Amino acid sequence: MATETRPEQGQAPVFTSFKEMMEYGKQNGYKMDWLQPRETFGSRLDSDEAAGGLLLQDIDHGPFAQVPDWSDNMTGRPRGALTRPNAPRVGNYSVRTKGDIWLKNAAQLYEEAVQRQWSSAVDVPWDEMEELPEDIERAECQLATFLTEVEFVAGDVPGKWISETTPDYYEPRMFLMSQIMDEARHMDVFRKRAFANGGGLMSQTTNVALSGGAIDSARDFTEMSARLHISGEGLVLSIFRMGERMSYNDAEKAIYRLAASDESRHVAFGVMHLQYLAQTDPERKEEIHSYLDEIEMGLVAGTGGQNPAARGTPSNAALAILLGGGSDAQSIHEGNQIALAVRQRQVKEYVQRVRVAGLGDRFENGRANAALAAYVSA
Ligand SMILES: [Fe+2]
Ligand SMILES: [Fe+2]
Fold this sequence. Notes:
By secondary structure, this protein is an all-alpha fold. It has twelve helices and no strands. It is elongated, with a radius of gyration of 26 Å. The site of one fe (ii) ion has 5 residues, from helix 8.
């Protein structure tokens, strides 16, 4: 039986059950149904410090873990929260189909991004830099200029897709926010490198495809992701991984190592998204293959403008000087040989990523660009 719940003057009511409280509300004209406990009430979550603490994926349970295939959420409602019928429309999200942006491990990638933030101000041993031969320093500055420019694009392009995505797909959304922070740091670290050793910014890239933004003109998230995460960032990642070979001090080594750890996460996002889409929406595979056709042209012919190792560009010349150790004919020749090895590595890593995404049939059925084979077999 309910006990006396009506308070005396100035005395707070004490309830022993939710039902009792609802009854009190009904009798006194208070709307209390919003206090109804949700399905997860009572299941406490333990954070496991050894496993990284309380992670975003750990709280994904009950109805809150149900990611709809289609989202009609236009009101900014957090996924799983109860709908308020008179909530105003605050978003006009175009990405409301799960396959358009989803991947299996976005929460994990986001948590990794948060955990591995670094600072270009204090995590790069700038004091280790010493004066370099003039041609080497100029090449460093040219490469740093190119990278400042591409990192700007890499932060700019995902930005617009965040506000286009329904809050029901918050994990990829939050990953993209972390990516933008990473890219801001990459832009700042290469800009700092250009100046740190007494240099400065050199020439803007001559390739209109970069600044004109084939990436930015994508009308579909997957199209953007293929061009940015698989192509552009994949190419840059292969170069950062060769960072040891083009570094002249510990500061440069640290820059490439730290940037590569971020880029590998961005590339993983793209690969896992393509994999999810190829598995759940096989009718879109042909469309993805058409993006890959375009990307492969960039790999073998240097179109697309995102590849610092593409032949005939200032950044490629800079790479050859850095890799060869000077600007005399012999050094540039040696540098170009190493740059060729860089391009081979780019192609091999690209092929591997496409295979992981579940689209490797193109390398067996004759669809892939024939010139790739020469790189792979090299
Ligand atoms: Fe980056
Ligand atoms: Fe990136």
